[in-house]
Design goal:
Oligomer: single chain
Strand order of the largest sheet: 1-2-3-4-5-6-7-8
Order of helices and strands: EHHHEHHEHEHEHEHEHEHHHHHHHHHHH
Number of helices: 21
Shape: globular
Radius of gyration: 22 Å
Helix content: 40-55%
Bound molecules: manganese (II) ion
Number of strands: 8
Structural class: alpha/beta
């Protein structure tokens, strides 16, 4: 390898976002993150991924934390490291398409509170759904010199997803004004030699840096990274070993060691990484002991190559079925997922399409008849409200679920009127900071419950008398 130019590979650390989202349903509290930030800040990571839809949702819903406050604390604790977030295009961090004014305001506030790199993706890879977020990021970058718009392509398999498809998408992304491209392989579907082909083809089609994000679910991820690095990928996403592998990412320390002494040497300090791992390891044990970390998501699940189910979706589905006492239907639902996906135009499976397809698959199995009940979201996908799919949708299912209804073909957000003022009016009694309207926009009920909780805390309500289950706090 002596003839290869030095090209240190860069790493995005995911332990504060995707790793705990994929393994422990996003339950890591801010309080636990803070003491280790100082060490993490010294590693020299390309970035630390720390914010996204599930972290935002789980903070408000389960941890009773303000996600904006978490972001500010992480910014303070990681002054020398770029902070990265995941952004669901026009769906922001939520589950429905929003008006452009909300998208712009969310981007502005994310950067103002500490985000550097915004990884923007669309669950259908409909690039029209990414333009508003990219424009918003570029606008702030121009004004303040901070902000990096990365467009992520949701990687998936299927007839439509040829090498030509990915190459043409890379070219379009460059034209859209993005700063970098991510290949976002939610389910660990990209196998090593396909990574060589994919990265080589994309590198020759674009000058933008390319980052690869994958999951260990199918067991090939670190080999895939190795081939991708050799093919010229610029950044890889890894998680510190205590929350690595399984449905999470390859382990940071392993990848660092793999490339040591090669032209791709990261230069990271292994003893520093070991200290960071020491901090997280007892937490892993604790999560195993209390059942938050289910051994089911930690092994190699080769069936993921068939069902294409991303890690976060798997751990959510396990707990969903558990709640319904229907854990025995796990494999039936896994089988129904690709069938629903085909009906809906073969989209990638990533939030929210993964939830939409997953929930519909659960209904189809538990109801005993396919589409006997269709969710609001399934109907919206069939109407075209989420955008265009690469393949046509199943006409029979369209006729069964939304008979005679009008379908749309334009950029969905063109039909959504600006809604910030309306949202502000709805939540004004709870507003304590500008960002609150955005929390409310994404999760109206959950955010309102949180606002009530926050107020009760501030007024020092006796929490032993509060009915936390029903969200009632005596004031
Ligand atoms: Mn992921």
């Amino acid at each position: 390898m002596a003839d290869i130019e030095k090209k240190p590979i860069k790493i995005t650390e995911t332990i504060l976002r995707d790793a705990h989202q994929s393994l422990i349903a996003t339950r890591m509290p801010t309080e636990f993150m803070l003491p280790i930030l100082d060490k993490m800040d010294k590693v020299g990571y390309h970035s630390v991924e720390c914010w996204g839809g599930a972290t935002f949702d789980a903070s408000l819903r389960f941890l009773k934390e303000d996600p904006w406050e978490r972001l500010r604390l992480l910014r303070k604790g990681l002054p020398n490291t770029k902070l990265q977030m995941l952004f669901r295009g026009q769906n922001i961090l939520g589950y429905r398409p929003y008006a452009d004014d909300v998208v712009h305001y969310f981007v502005e506030k994310s950067i103002a509170n500490g985000i550097d790199i915004i990884r923007i993706f669309d669950c259908l890879n409909d690039l029209r759904n990414l333009q508003a977020a990219v424009d918003a990021t570029n606008k702030i970058k121009k004004k303040e010199g901070r902000g990096h718009a990365q467009i992520a392509l949701s990687y998936t398999l299927g007839d439509a997803y040829t090498l030509d498809y990915w190459v043409s998408m890379a070219k379009k992304i460059e034209e859209m004004g993005a700063d970098s491209i991510c290949i976002k392989d939610m389910a660990g579907l990209l196998v090593p030699y396909k990574a060589t082909e994919l990265i080589s083809a994309m590198k020759s089609a674009t000058k933008l840096p390319i980052q690869l994000h994958t999951h260990y679910t199918s067991g090939v991820a670190s080999m895939t990274y190795m081939k991708a690095v050799e093919a010229g990928v610029d950044v890889i996403d890894c998680a510190m070993s205590p929350l690595a592998m399984g449905t999470s990412q390859p382990a940071t320390e392993v990848m660092v060691e793999t490339f040591k002494g090669t032209p791709y040497d990261t230069g990271y300090d292994q003893s520093l990484l070991a200290e960071i791992a020491d901090y997280f390891r007892p937490y892993r044990d604790e999560c195993l002991a209390n059942g938050l970390l289910n051994p089911k998501v930690m092994g190699v699940d080769i069936k993921t190559l068939l069902y294409q189910v991303p890690g976060g979706m798997l751990s959510n589905m396990v707990s969903q079925l558990k709640e319904q006492n229907a854990e025995d239907k796990y494999y039936d639902v896994l089988k129904e997922i690709p069938a629903v996906r085909k009906d809906l135009g073969e989209p990638p499976l990533v939030t929210p399409s993964s939830q939409i397809v997953g929930t519909q698959a659960v209904f189809n199995v538990l109801m005993g008849e396919r589409y006997k009940m269709a969710t609001k979201e399934t109907k919206a996908v069939l109407r075209g409200e989420y955008g265009q799919t690469v393949k046509p949708m199943n006409q029979e299912i369209i006729d069964k679920v939304i008979p005679g209804e009008k379908r749309i073909t334009c950029r969905p957000a063109d039909l959504i009127e600006n809604e910030l003022d309306k949202l502000e009016a709805e939540m004004k009694e709870w507003k304590q900071q500008d960002e609150d309207v955005l929390s409310y926009a994404l999760f109206p009920q959950v955010a309102t419950d949180f606002f009530k909780y926050r107020q009760a805390q501030q007024e020092k309500v006796d929490m032993t008398k509060a009915d936390t289950k029903n969200g009632a706090y005596p004031v």
